[in-house]
Amino acid sequence: MKYKYVLTEEPAEGKLVYSQDEYSFDTENQRAASEPVASIAIAKTLQVEFGIDSGTLLHIWGYSPREAWQKAEITPPNSMPGQVTIIDDEGEDFGAGFSYSELNLKNEKVLFDENSGWISIGSSDAKTAIEICKGIILGFSEDKLACVWLCPTFES
Question: What residues does each domain of the chain span?
């Protein structure tokens, strides 16, 4: 999949939360999709939800047990607020409710910095980093998704 972005004044509304009891991420108070949605699978079980008509990436949700995360000292990239959309250059016919695999990030390890609270999935060599929602940064190498950075609020 390929992506494009436009810069905005601020990232979209929403709050990334990690439920320790449910071992999962969710985004609270996110903008509601006014169109059918599908998702892109990363790190096996996390989902980046997007509107299938607009291609706009909305937020992240999904199962990710903290016990599987590898501890590391990591620093998120400098990012800019923006909106990211999928470029449908392969004739993909996205269906509502389906999950599509992002092959670059399908089996990536999840790194976690206990001191900063940041979580990293994917390559650290992204050239551009876009914050689509508070606590969600997508990193790109040209027009390919190279990494995802998450900084959730941890809840029981």
Answer: 2-155
Q: 31-52 in b/e burial notation, b at 16+ Cβ within 10 A?
A: eebeeebbbbbbbeebbbbbbb
Condensed to tens digits (0 to 9), the pLDDT of residues 65-90 reads 999 999 999 999 999 999 999 986 66
Residue of 56, 48, 16 lying closest to 155 (CA atoms): 16
pLDDT digits 0-9 by tens, 32-68 = 668 899 999 888 889 999 998 889 999 999 999 999 9
How do strand 57-63 and strand 99-101 relate by DSSP bridges? Answer: unpaired
Q: Scan for tokens 């000292």, then name that residue.
A: 73
One-letter amino acid for residue 115 of the chain: N
The residue assigned the tokens 């790194």 is: 111
- CA angle 112–132–153, rounded 5-degree value: 40
